[in-house]
Design goal:
alpha+beta; three-stranded antiparallel sheet; 3 strands; 28% helix
C-alpha cells in the first residue's frame, strides 16, 4: 500500500491536498546516496479513474513548468 498527497491547486473543501491510497508494486529502484535514499519506480494497482486523472494532472503541470 502507498499513501501520498499531491500538492497542487486542487484541494478539498478543508484546503487539504488530494490524497491517494492504493496498492502498488515497486518495479525499479536506484540508491542515490549511501544514507539509504532511493528513487523508486512504482506501478499503481487498482487506481480509480479520479486518482489516475489527478496524477496525470500533477505530472503534466510539472512538465509544463520545466519548459519555461
Amino acid at each position: 500500500m502507498v499513501n501520498f498527497a499531491l500538492p497542487f491547486a486542487d484541494k478539498d473543501i478543508n484546503n487539504n491536498p488530494f490524497e491517494i491510497e492504493t496498492r502498488a508494486r515497486v518495479i525499479r529502484y536506484e540508491e542515490i546516496e549511501r544514507d539509504k535514499v532511493y528513487h523508486l519506480g512504482i506501478e499503481f494497482l487498482d487506481l480509480r479513474e479520479r486518482q489516475r486523472d489527478k496524477i496525470f494532472k500533477f505530472i503534466f503541470s510539472k512538465m509544463a513548468k520545466r519548459r519555461f
